[in-house]
# Entry
Amino acid sequence: MSKKKNKSPIKPAKIRRKKPDTQQKKQPVRKPESTPKPAQGPGQGEDLPDIIEALTGGPGSTAMFADGEDLATPNPSDIPSVLPVLAVRDIVVFNYMILPLFVGREKSVQAVDASLNDDRYILILTQKDEAVEDPAEEDLYLTGTVGMIMRMLKMPDGRLKVLVQGLARAKVKKFTANEPYHIAELEPIIEPEVPSLTSEQEALVRSSREQSERILSLRGISSQDIMSVLNNVSDPGRLADLIASNLRMKVNAAQKILECQDPMIRLELVNSQLLKEVEVANMQNKIQAMAKEGMDKAQRDFYLREQMKAIKRELGDDNDETEEMEELKQGIIKSGMPKEVMKEAHKQLRRLESMHAESSEATVIRTYLDWMIELPWKKLSRDRLDIKKAEEILNTDHYDLEKVKERILEYLSVRKLNPKMKGPILCFAGPPGVGKTSLGRSIARSLGRKFHRMSLGGMRDEAEIRGHRRTYIGAMPGRIIQAIKQCGTRNPVIMLDEIDKLGSDFRGDPSSALLEVLDPEQNFSFTDYYLNVPFDLSKVMFICTANMLDSIPGPLRDRMEIIRIPGYTEHEKTVITRRYIIPRQTEENGLKEDELVISDKLVSKVVREYTREAGLRNVEREIGTLCRKMARKKAEGEKGPFKVTAKNLYKLLGPPHFLDDEKETALPPGVAVGLAWTPVGGELLHIEVTTMPGKGKLILTGKLGEVMKESAQAALSIARARADEYGIDPKFVDERDIHVHVPAGATPKDGPSAGVTLVTALISALTDAPINPEVAMTGEISLRGRVLPVGGIKEKILAAVSRGMKKVLIPSQNKKDLAEVPDELLKKITIKTIEKIDEVWPLAKAD
# Structure
């Protein structure tokens, strides 16, 4: 086919250029022969100046635009009805646009060749999905733009670069061919003529120009020349196409504007896009202003710091920072850190040297290095290994507690023979007020070590043990490392008080964090999150205290050596009050030791009638009350000594809180006295059983736990099974209801140790035979009638003696626990061991 001469009536468009800010020659239209930017295929433009850059915010736009007044519109009859199709992606071509296109796909290249060999007309359609490499008919929008290829250049890689000018809208009627390229039969879209503009339409045109000018000012572009181009375009349709072709829009939004035939509606759509662009431009300006403000402040701070450094150098004061770094360096060397730890410290020091002294990160690193330097990496206090002296100190500070004292002396003995031994993990378990915390202080004094007490009650944050990571604001090491630093030695005595009251929540489980701390096989390399280096805790002697062991997790309890500290007897309380409490309270209340005169008999009376506890806290309160009464007399001018007698004791302390008369001289049938263990010592428990006409129903009251309810069921089964043996009417199951009640109904009660007492009270009620009021009992029962062992024997015997009981029945397997009971208690009460339930009734019933 011979190449036809171009007879197009379209005259080339004039490209208006913006005047440069500097005095330069006017630049011509960019030639297609110039080196283009890389592109993936059709629809990719290059840097374009003038109005396009202005409306879209800079280089990278997609088209140049001819002055609409200088461009002739083709006659629809001049446009062929069948044209080759060029599929483009990422762009919608509007009328009067002049833009470069890269053509690389085979079908597109052949379509361009066919257009050049004919009359240079080509139909440009946009793909619906840009990812489709070989678009079919259904992949193309049916409304596009008829364009003319103004220039063509072949690239070295075989692609074509063409300069295309949009001429008129057109709609595809049908595709006549798809190979070797798309050919479509089209129908040009004739735009309706707009008569003289109404006031509303004129307002829309002006609004579009004003929004365009606003975008130009927000972009920081001089708008004088560009606005003259916009003002020269009077036709609403051309104005809409001029602005729309250079706005940043998605393909579907641009296609919607292209398909709109009514010029005014099209201008309304463009105006709405302009409003969005103005909003985006405003936000960009705001963000850039904020960023610039922050950058300016940083630059200003840097400049001022450099000036300060220069001033210091001139004044000769620039050695302060160097001296600080040298001090830190020497501190690291003298601290005795292990090699790996020192390596990390020097690394952080090098980071600090490269930072500005006032930066927040420098403050964090400086604080970290201070902690590292102040920790006692090698400093150990010398243990006092004089066993006799240590024993003397323990005996001076504490009365009784022989088992604890023996364990501490054993530790000192082994320490003397093997200095490399690891510190033990002891746990003192016992009721409140028995001296667990003060015992820890005495241990530290006997060893000659520093002492630190750490309360764990209510702790819920794991970071309290392991510390916070340095990324957090206000991060600090955990309380273990803080205690080491405060003591100044690597082998203090650290008391973890109330370890049974640890909690856990979303911040972690402190008891799990303590697993490493309280394990001598692991704590030699304990890692605090703040330090992030291992620290040796194996020389620390940890002492834990707890009231109850049940709430301590099993793995943690397994790491500790449990030493139980039971309650004190009346004699022990009297001795402790005389030796320790009275001298301390007289001194605290401003009295001399010889100004308060009170006999041991009256001290015992205070202990017995005003307190009922395993420990000594209430005893100290009562003695403190006596001292305050005497201190008032002294302050009023009376002269001592002030004597406490049996007559004025009640006047000073008030009526007794507990009386021995509470012990009933006779018990009605169905009432038995049991012994119970509580965290504050032993207690007497009266269990009451009564029967009434009914149908064998068992009623349980007194806030009993599940285990105690099961013991009552077992007691009833034993009574039914042995009815003939005890002389019980077998018909009671069908004719009588049984009600079991344990007084102090507001107090929860649970445990199996009331089983023996329940059986005894039930038999007493069913046989109408009373029980000896001076007999107390404890023990678990089985359905076979065996009496099983229970705990808290010493505390229960203490409670029985303090309430005036004469005989106590305990399981035979608990006989070994009598070794812990002081001889003075065993002399005051008769202990009977029982193996089967049959042995209980003869010992318990009243004579």
User: Anything to note?
Assistant: Residues 387-563 form a domain with the Rossmann fold fold (CATH 3.40.50.300).
